[in-house]
Amino acid sequence: MASRRPFLAGNWKMHGTRTEAVALASDLRAQVGDVADRDIAVFPPFPFLEAVRNALRGSRIEVGAQDCHAEPKGAYTGAVAPEMLRDAGCRYVLVGHSERRSLFGETDDVVAGKVLGALRAGLMPIVCVGETLAERDAGKVEDVLRRQVNAALLRVSPDRMERVTVAYEPVWAIGTGRNATPAQAEEAHAFIRHLLTALFPAGQADRTRIQYGGSVKPDNIAGLMREPDVDGALVGGASLSAASFAAIVRYGKG
Ligand code: PGA
Question: Which residues are known catalytic residues?
Answer without folding.
Answer: 97, 169
